[in-house]
Design brief:
Bound molecules: nicotinamide-adenine-dinucleotide
Strand content: 5-15%
Strand order of the largest sheet: 3-2-1-4-5-6-7-8
Order of helices and strands: EHEHHEEHEHEEHEHHHHHEE
Helix content: 40-55%
Shape: globular
Number of helices: 11
């Protein structure tokens, strides 16, 4: 099946990046969000990101104009009716996603593939609320979407090989590198990443080393571009907490239980970059990495 029109549900951090990448590669994109201000913000962010690409000469003025022209913002899910692919990137909440998938299953044409960008919710569970579980798949982009090369493709229990192969080829057309995995808790990316982050937090909690030492060991010793504590701040400590709970519940193995320090920080509202404080402190306009006063 030829995919030409793609609907992206949710115009937040990931949705605007996904819309940007599809539109830049010539696809028509219906960008759908319940919030009109969020749609306006998404177009502003996409324009700013295209300007950055322009200043680095990685795109031309014509590509910028064509990309913006390819994106049609809308507030109703009914907008998916002419699409061959829907990529859902709404808020990470099981009930919300199940409700969205029921609606898009009703509104999308027969043959349309329904994908979710979820970080941790079971694709099989999402597929089960639709009448086309064979056409439901995970398309897990990484943040920031225009920069990060990986797309983790998650086959649900019923996903057909044809649908999986179509999404692999499509990801390549977007200039991405697809990796196909099966639908078990955390898939691959978060199943491996989150225990590492949790172990870094345990190391701090047990006073094995301080924030800077832990991150420097992993940066310089393992050639990671960012230490695990800084990465946790970037992802959001609430998000790390909820993904660890998915792993813990899904496997029933205590090795995934979130570190009590992480639980305390989330409860106290210290969520990392987005709240201004996590393992580091963040102030607007400053790029300097400053360890939070709590851990000095
Ligand atoms: N942020 C990341 O680093 C990251 C990375 C990979 C995957 N993800 C996944 O991507 C998805 C989106 O995450 P995000 O960080 O972009 O969230 P976000 O909070 O930035 O954006 C979510 C958007 O969904 C919209 N929304 C909520 N309900 C809706 C509905 N019924 N219909 C349409 N839009 C609706 C909200 O208005 C908001 O604009 C989640 O499933 C998350 O797990 C996030």
């Amino acid at each position: 099946m030829m995919i030409q029109t793609v609907s992206v549900i949710g115009a937040g951090t990931m949705g605007n990046g996904i819309a940007h990448v599809f539109a830049q590669n010539g696809f028509t994109v219906n960008l759908i969000d319940v919030s009109k201000p969020q749609l306006d913000k998404a177009i502003t962010v996409i324009t700013k990101n295209l300007d950055r690409q322009l200043s680095k000469a990685s795109i031309t003025e014509e590509i910028k104009a064509a990309t913006l022209k390819n994106i049609i913002p809308m507030t109703s899910i009914a907008g998916v009716h002419g699409s061959q692919l829907v990529v859902e990137a709404a808020t990470e909440n099981v009930d919300l996603k199940l409700s969205i998938f029921k609606q898009i299953d009703e509104a999308a044409p027969q043959g349309c593939i329904l994908a979710s960008n979820t970080s941790s919710i079971s694709i099989t569970k999402i597929a089960a609320v639709t009448k086309r579980p064979e056409s439901v798949i995970g398309m897990h982009f990484m943040n920031p979407v225009p920069v990060m090369k990986l797309v983790e493709i998650i086959n649900g229990y019923a996903t057909t090989k044809e649908v999986s192969d179509t999404i692999v080829e499509l990801s390549k057309k977007l200039g991405k590198v697809p990796c196909v995995v099966n639908d078990y808790p955390g898939f691959i990316a978060n199943r491996i990443l989150m225990p590492m982050i949790n172990e870094a937090i345990y190391s701090l909690y047990e006073n094995v080393a301080g924030v800077e030492a832990i991150d420097t060991v992993m940066k310089l010793g393992m050639a990671h571009p960012m230490g695990p504590l800084q990465l946790a701040d970037f992802i959001g400590l609430d998000v790390c907490y909820s993904i660890l709970n998915v792993l813990h519940d899904g496997f029933g193995n205590p090795k995934y239980s979130p570190c009590p320090l992480l639980v305390n920080m989330v409860t106290a509202g210290k969520l990392g970059c987005k709240s201004g404080e996590g393992f580091y402190s963040y102030s607007a306009g400053s790029k300097e990495l400053v360890v939070s006063g709590r851990f000095k």
